[in-house]
Automatic annotation (TrEMBL):
Membrane-spanning segments: none
Family: Belongs to the glycosyl hydrolase 100 family.
Function: Invertase that cleaves sucrose into glucose and fructose.
Protein name: Alkaline/neutral invertase
One function term, GO molecular function aspect: endo-alpha-N-acetylgalactosaminidase activity
GO biological process: sucrose catabolic process
Keywords for the protein's UniProt record, in alphabetical order: Carbohydrate metabolism, Glycosidase, Hydrolase
High-level lineage: Eukaryota, Viridiplantae, Streptophyta, Embryophyta, Tracheophyta
Region (Disordered): 74-100
Annotated catalysed reactions: Hydrolysis of terminal non-reducing beta-D-fructofuranoside residues in beta-D-fructofuranosides
């Protein structure tokens, strides 16, 4: 979680108003019009539009209704903007709905109560969930609604039949995207989505104001690359869950997607289809050596592209994007499946590479020095199993395991069925290392000693086996569960869930755990961390009703299968 500044708020934190953005919003009466009368798709059991191939889309298929929502109905801008979270407010939502006849675990009711306490309201409408409700710690930016943090909360509400808050969140963040974004004298791209926002209340004027952080207050001043991808993924999940395509069909939502995609699909000097990023631009939002082409961003990018294909209209503007997306997906699937994938055979091939080769016939295409292979990888790699490594760029391969990227690779079908099975095999084979006593390691292994000083800049929060440096994050449980269901291995998720249930409630829902096994509550972990709570609920609901996983899981596109031959440049 990145530290940010704001102006004076109810917690007494003094913040610099010059670096924050106040965003004009839809007036309450106008905003309410969008929440009424959802248009439902006819969800027949033919092929859902998630199951149609890239080829279908590229030749002109458009999964949309003929109805339109005019931009006038989207709402008009007002001069005053509004305000802040109301963590103490009671939600008007009903108690959680059970979709099975099984008796609920006693943690479930506690988790739902904690999740509802975290709701943030704007002009009487719930628009998100606060990052954490730990009254024993300074708020910093944990009193804000983070885009990535809200995702598991959104899935929990969707699975419980409460889509209104998700719709509100999608529309509010969309309006924030349209605002001018500057850091010092530099203007950010129009499509950048905020990392977070908060609602401030002015008791004198009785107004509420939304204030967004686009990276100008973050550690290192890095814009959140993942926010836009999560927004598109969440829009598809809302459409899939409700059968209501009218939200995605709004001209403003269509434009929002195109703006995000324009940032990522623009041509430049890059020779790879993957997305070049700065360190700290995703869940790992501090310096951790994930600059370049981190697996988390590439997997999210791939999934967002696939979701956008399903949501974009094939009008004059949308058709061009569909063609560009289709080409990029083919290139990315080949590149990632070939160059980011490692298993025992591929490890042995790299170990035997020659260096300083030239021409298109080179075997060692990225000039990886075999002596740079870390010692731990040889013992870590099982006979059966494999994974997508953390990063690949010229003369550099980051062999660390990153949980989020590999789970999203499975769910987005970036991984082939064989690769998905291998990732599950790896998790089972290396349970102590990757799960331990509390799921799940955000990355493995931790970096330490001289490497830690160089890579993190002596970051006191990312010491070995803590926080993003090998810490254990309960929020990742929902992604693991969805991946397990997709690969037909729910027993792995149940085993991890039982571990979480033995401690999470007793420990007051920590943000993360420390230690090689995740035995200790993180030294700077917030309690009552909302995405720890929501991640547990989503995992629980998916195991009770596996059909819920369809909101976040995409089937493999058969059009991409022939591209799975390994490149000659990586064959020994």
């Amino acid at each position: 979680m990145s530290n940010s500044s704001s102006n004076m708020n109810q917690n007494g934190n003094v913040k610099n108003n010059d670096t924050l953005f106040t965003v004009d919003e839809i007036e309450e009466s106008e905003f309410s019009k969008l929440l009424d009368r959802p248009r439902h798709l006819n969800m027949e059991r033919q092929r859902s539009f998630d199951e149609r191939s890239l080829g279908d889309l590229a030749i002109g298929f458009s999964p949309r209704l003929s109805t339109r929502v005019s931009s006038e109905n989207f709402g008009r801008l007002s001069d005053n903007y509004d305000h802040s979270p109301s963590p103490g407010r009671k939600s008007d939502f009903n108690t959680p709905r059970s979709h099975t006849g099984f008796e609920q675990h006693p943690m479930v009711a506690e988790a739902w109560e904690a999740l509802r306490r975290s709701l943030v309201y704007f002009r009487g409408q719930p628009v998100g969930t606060i990052a954490a409700l730990d009254s024993t710690e300074e708020n910093l930016n944990y009193d804000q609604v983070f885009v990535r943090d809200f995702v598991p909360s959104a899935f929990a509400f969707l699975m419980n039949g409460e889509p209104e808050i998700v719709k509100n969140f999608i529309l509010k963040t969309l309006r924030l995207q349209s605002w001018e974004k500057k850091i010092d004298r530099f203007q950010l791209g129009e499509g950048v989505m905020p990392a977070s926002f908060k609602v401030l209340h002015d008791p004198v004027r009785n107004t509420e104001t939304l204030i967004a952080d686009f990276g100008e207050s973050a550690i290192g001043r890095v814009a959140p690359v993942d926010s836009g991808f999560w927004w598109i993924i969440l829009l598809r999940a809302y459409t899939k869950s409700t059968g209501d395509s009218s939200l995605a069909e709004l001209p403003e939502c269509q434009k929002g997607m195109r703006l995000i995609l324009s940032l990522c699909l623009s041509e430049g000097f890059d020779t790879f289809p993957t997305l070049l990023c700065a360190d700290g631009c995703c869940m790992i939002d501090r310096r951790m050596g994930v600059y370049g082409y981190p697996i988390e961003i590439q997997a999210l990018f791939f999934m967002a592209l696939r979701c956008a294909l399903l949501l974009l209209k094939q009008d004059h503007e949308g058709k061009d994007f569909v063609e560009r997306i289709t080409k990029r997906l083919h290139a990315m699937s080949y590149h990632m499946r070939t160059y980011f994938w490692i298993d025992l055979k591929q490890l042995n091939d790299i170990y035997r590479y020659k260096t300083e080769e030239y021409s298109h016939t080179a075997l060692n295409k990225f000039n990886v020095i075999p002596d740079s292979l870390p010692e731990w990888i040889f013992d870590f790699m099982p006979t059966r199993g494999g994974y997508f490594i953390g990063n690949v760029s010229p003369a550099r391969m980051d062999f660390r395991w990153f949980c989020l990227g590999n789970c999203i690779a499975i769910l987005s079908a970036l991984a082939t069925p064989e690769q998905s099975t291998a990732i599950m095999d790896l998790i089972e084979s290396r349970w102590e290392e990757l799960v331990g006593e509390m799921p799940l390691k955000v990355c493995y292994p931790a970096i330490e000693s001289h490497e830690w000083r160089i890579v993190t800049g002596c970051d006191p929060k990312n010491t070995r086996w803590s926080y993003h440096n090998g810490g254990s994050w309960p929020v990742l449980l929902w992604l693991l569960t969805a991946a397990c269901i997709k690969t037909g291995r729910p027993q792995i998720a149940r085993r991890a869930l039982e571990l979480a249930e033995s401690r999470l409630l007793k420990d007051n829902w920590p943000e993360y755990y420390d230690g090689t096994l995740g035995r200790y509550i993180g030294k700077q972990a917030r309690k009552f961390q909302t995405w720890s709570i929501a991640g547990y609920l989503v995992a629980k609901m998916m195991l009770e009703d596996p059909s819920h996983s369809g909101m976040v899981s995409l089937e493999e596109d058969k059009q991409m299968k022939p591209l799975m031959k390994r490149s000659h440049s990586w064959t020994c």
